[in-house]
């Protein structure tokens, strides 16, 4: 059923969000137009401002309203370590977890030749140049434990080792509080391969 050009356009636009299909978009549209027009106006204004003002940090490629993001500009960060992640959402996850105080490099994806994503699209030349110029003691690879994430980590490892940079990989395995009988085989295999002495 079509509701009219403006309503249909809003429902179609909401479907660009991850996990939002036609029914969810319809519910959101009806909620905003029936019950929360003030919220709809605030959402539209905030989205418009963000699209206009938010770009990428020229050093780490994270989302930022400035040419250099707050993390890269901070004097309190440990400038001897660099953490490589796939997305800006990964930076948020690491920051919220706490414990890491170094710098970041955001790939904006992972190697996927089938999708036309190669080293150039991920800025791996920029990563290698930054690692050489800034003399990091350690580059920590925090790509996801998927086939593409592992391939990306391997490629970066080979590239940085050739440049004489120390590279490490975040641990993968059994989650804290997890029970072995409920953990899948691939996760258990990673946990055994990544074991360390106590």
What does it look like?
The chain is of the alpha/beta class and 198 residues long. The protein has a domain at 78-172: 3-Layer(aba) Sandwich (Dna Topoisomerase Vi A Subunit, Chain: A, domain 2), CATH 3.40.1360. It has helices at residues 5-14, 22-34, 37-53, 70-73, 88-97, 124-134, 147-162, 185-193, and strands spanning 55-56, 63-64, 81-85, 103-106, 138-141, 167-169. Helix 1 (5-14) crosses helix 2. The relative contact order is 0.08.
Distance between the termini: 63 Å
User: What share of residues are in beta strands?
Assistant: 5-15%
How would a textbook summarize the main sheet? 4 strands, parallel
Spatial order of the strands in the main sheet?
A: 4-3-5-6
Structure annotation, total helices: 8
Overall, the morphology is: globular
Mean pLDDT: 91
State Rg.
Answer: 21 Å
* Estimated structural class: alpha/beta
Helix content: 40-55%
Write the layout of secondary structure elements.
Elements: H1 5-14, H2 22-34, H3 37-53, E1 55-56, E2 63-64, H4 70-73, E3 81-85, H5 88-97, E4 103-106, H6 124-134, E5 138-141, H7 147-162, E6 167-169, H8 185-193
Parallel strand pairs: 3-4, 3-5, 5-6
Antiparallel strand pairs: 1-2
Task: Describe the structure concisely for a colleague.
The protein has helices at about 5-15, 20-35, 35-55, 70-75, 90-95, 125-135, 145-160, 185-195, and strands at about 55, 65, 80-85, 105, 140, 165-170. The protein is an alpha/beta fold and about 200 residues long. The longest helix is centred in the N-terminal third of the chain and has 17 residues, at about 35-55.
């Amino acid at each position: 059923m079509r509701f009219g050009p403006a309503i249909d356009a809003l429902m179609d636009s909401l479907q660009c969000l991850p996990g939002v299909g036609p029914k969810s978009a319809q519910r959101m549209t009806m909620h905003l137009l029936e019950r929360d027009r003030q919220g709809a106006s605030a959402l539209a204004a905030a989205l418009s401002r963000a699209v206009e003002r938010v770009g990428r940090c020229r050093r780490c490629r994270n989302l930022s309203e400035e040419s250099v993001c707050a993390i890269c500009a901070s004097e309190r960060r440990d400038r001897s370590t660099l953490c490589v992640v796939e997305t800006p959402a990964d930076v948020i996850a690491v920051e919220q977890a706490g414990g890491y105080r170094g710098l970041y490099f955001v790939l904006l994806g992972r190697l996927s030749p089938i999708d036309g994503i190669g080293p150039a699209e991920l800025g791996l030349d920029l990563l290698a140049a930054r690692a050489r110029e800034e003399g990091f003691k350690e580059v920590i690879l925090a790509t996801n434990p998927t086939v593409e994430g592992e391939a990306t980590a391997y490629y970066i490892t080979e590239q940085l080792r050739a440049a004489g940079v120390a590279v490490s990989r975040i641990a993968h395995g059994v989650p804290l509080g997890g029970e072995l009988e409920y953990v899948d085989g691939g996760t258990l295999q990673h946990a055994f391969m990544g074991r360390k002495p106590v």
